[in-house]
Amino acid sequence: MRPPKVRYALISSSSKTISPRPVKMMIKVKRFNRRVITVVVACGLLATFALPVQGTQENLLPHLRRQGNATQLVVDGKPFLILGGELGNSTSSSLEYMRPVWPKVVSLNLNTLLVPVYWELIEPAEGKFDFSLVDGLIQEARRHQQRLLPLWFASWKNSMSCYAPAWVKTDQRRFPRAQDAAGRGMEILSAFSKENVDADAHAFAAFMRHLREVDGNDHTVIMVQVENEIGMIPDSRERSAVAEKLFKQPVPTELMSYLVERKETLIPEFRAAWAAAGFKTRGTWEEVFGVGPKTDEIFMAWYFARFTNRVAQLGAAEYKLPMFVNAALIRPGYQPGQYPSAGPLPHLMDVWRAGAPLIDFLSPDIYFPNFAEWCRKYQQSGNPLFIPEAAPNPSSAVNAFYAVGQHDAIGFSPFAIESVEEPVSKLLAASYDVLKQLAPLILEHQGKSSMVGLLPEGAEQRVPQKVRLGSYTLNVTYERPTSSTAQSAQTPDAISGGLVISVGPDEFIFAGTGLVITFETETPSDVTVGILSAQEGKYVNGQWVSGRWLNGDQTHQGRHLRLVPGKFDIQRVKLYHYR
Ligand code: DGJ
C-alpha cells in the first residue's frame, strides 16, 4: 500500500512554461541592532494577520455559493456563467493540433473550454509525472482569455478504462479488471480494488497539486470533472468474486442511515423502488431493494461513488476546486447494463450523494431532444445544473438560454466544439454573444424566481405556452418549434427559444430568437395589458445601450412582442394596463 503522500518525480519540469508565483521574503540580518527588533516586531505583526489573510485567499479560489435557491460558481470573487464548449476526446493531446482551435473558440464567444486531461499521458510511468501538456493548455487558455475546465480521463471514460496508463493496463494482477458472469476480464478497472483507487487518486492528487502550483493565483482552471461518464456496460454490475461477496453482504450502514434520515425527500423514483421492497432498513442489497438489475445498479452506484469520492478526496486535499461527475443518459426503455448502469443518473442521485459527498454536483450529458426534461431531472433536490456536454446542433444555441434562464444553470457546453461548422457555429456564437452581454444581469437574478427560460414543449405546439413572471402571464408562441426533424435539418431558423428577466414591476428583458409574446395580468381581471415601449439594444459593460424603438409592424401595432427567427436579439419592454 502506498503512503498517503508521495514525492512526485517530474519527467519534464513545468516551471519552464508556467512558473508558480510564491511570495518570497529574504531578510539578511548582520548585526543585532534596532533593525532586527523592527524586523522581529514586523514578523510578529505579519504572523498575527497571516491567518485571516490566508482565509481570504481560500475564499478567492473558485468555489460554489448559494444565492436564493440557486448555486453559483464564484471565480475571482464574482459569480461566473460558463459559456463553454467541450473538446473532442483526443484534441487536447497535442498542443500543435490545438493551435487553430484557440482562435475558433474565441470566435465562438466561449469563455471556458472543457479539456480532457489524460492519466496515461500525465503519469506514463508510475510516480513519474509529465505536466507539459497541461501547462501548455493553461498558457494558451490565458493567452486567449479562456478559463479551463479539465476532465479527468482516468479510471473510467464512458465505462471503459482506455485512459489508464500502460503500467496499469498491463498489470492485471495488481490492478484487477471487472469481470463478466463468465469470469472474463473486461477493459474496465474494478471499482472494488484498493490498488485501483489508490493509483487513480494519487495521480489525481499530483494533478491537483500541480494546478495549485501553477494556477493557484490565476484561477484559469475553475472546476474539475472527475472521470467521465462512469457506468457499467454491458452488464448491470461487476461479477468478480469480490463483487459477488459484497453483493451478498448487508447494505453499508452509511448508505442506510443516509436514506433513513432523508426518507421523505428522496428522489421519488428511488424512494418508490425502496418502498416497493418494504422500506427495510437493514439486510442485503436484494433484501432492501428487491431482486433485479435495478438493485444491481444501486449496489454498483454505491461503489462507483465511494471510489470517485476517494479520488476527489486526495485531489481536494491538494487543491480545493469545485468537482463534479457527468452521466450518459438513459435511452427510453433501456435497462441497467443496456445503458451504462449506475452512473450519476437522476434516479441514483441519493446513492451518489451519500457515497460521494466530496463531489459537488452531478451533471447530465444531454444528447437527446428532450432537453428540458433532462434539465428538470438534474435540478431535483437542490442539485445545481451544469451541462458539460450537449449535442452540438442548432438547438444548442437556444438550449443554453433555457438552461440558464429556467434552471439557473452554472453553465452550458456543446460537445466537440472545435468541429462545429455553419450554421451551428454562427448560431452558437450569436447566442453566446447575447448571453455574455446579459451575464451580469442573469447572475444577479439567479435563484430569485425573477427569470424564466423559454423553450417549445414539443414539435407540434399550437397552443401558446403560459409562463408566469412577476405579476404577468406571458403567452409564448414559438415561431419555429424544435423537433428532431428541425434539429437534423440544421437550418438556422429551425430553432426558437430564449429567456426573460423581470427587472421591474412592469419591465422585462427578453432575449432569444423566434418568439412571439402577448401579455395578461397574472390573475384574471378586467384590465388589458398593453406594450408601453419595446426597445431593442445591447448591454455594453453591463449597461443598457438602446437601439431601435420597436413599434408599428415590429410589435403588430402594439399587440405583441416579437423576436424574429434566424438571429438572437435583446429587447427591453415596458408594459401598462388599460380598461
Ligand atoms: C459522451 C462522452 O462523454 C464524450 O467523451 C464523447 O465520447 C461523446 N459521448 C461522443 O458522442
Give a brief outline of the structure:
By secondary structure, this protein is of the alpha/beta class. Helix content is 33%, strand content 26%. Helix 13 links the parallel strand 12 and strand 13.
Protein architecture, described:
The chain is built from 17 helices and 25 strands. The radius of gyration is 26 Å and the shape is globular. The model is unreliable at 1-56 and 483-489 (pLDDT under 50). Bound molecules: (2R,3S,4R,5S)-2-(hydroxymethyl)piperidine-3,4,5-triol. (2R,3S,4R,5S)-2-(hydroxymethyl)piperidine-3,4,5-triol (DGJ) binds at residues 89, 158, 228-229, 365, 389, 415.
Helix/strand/pairing class, anyone? alpha/beta
What fraction of the residues are assigned to beta strands by DSSP?
25-35%
First CA to last CA: what distance? 80 Å
Radius of gyration: 26 Å
Number of beta-strand segments: 25
| Largest beta-sheet details | 8 strands, parallel, barrel
Attached small molecules? (2R,3S,4R,5S)-2-(hydroxymethyl)piperidine-3,4,5-triol
Gross morphology: globular
Task: Give the number of helices.
Answer: 17
Low-confidence stretches: 1-56, 483-489
Strand order of the largest sheet: 5-6-8-11-12-13-14-15
Helix content: 25-40%
Mean pLDDT: 90
Write the layout of secondary structure elements.
Layout: E1 9-12, H1 34-60, E2 63-67, E3 70-75, E4 78-80, E5 82-86, H2 95-98, H3 101-107, E6 112-118, H4 119-122, E7 128-130, H5 132-143, E8 147-157, H6 166-169, E9 177-179, E10 185-189, H7 194-215, E11 224-228, H8 241-247, H9 253-261, H10 268-276, H11 285-289, H12 293-318, E12 323-328, H13 349-355, E13 361-366, H14 371-378, E14 386-390, H15 396-407, E15 411-414, H16 424-445, E16 451-454, E17 465-469, E18 472-478, H17 484-489, E19 497-504, E20 507-513, E21 515-521, E22 528-540, E23 543-549, E24 561-563, E25 569-578
Parallel strand pairs: 1-7, 5-6, 5-15, 6-8, 8-11, 11-12, 12-13, 13-14, 14-15
Antiparallel strand pairs: 2-3, 3-4, 9-10, 16-19, 17-18, 18-21, 19-20, 20-25, 21-24, 22-23, 22-25
Helix pairs in contact: 7-12, 9-13, 12-13, 14-15, 15-16
The structure holds (2R,3S,4R,5S)-2-(hydroxymethyl)piperidine-3,4,5-triol.
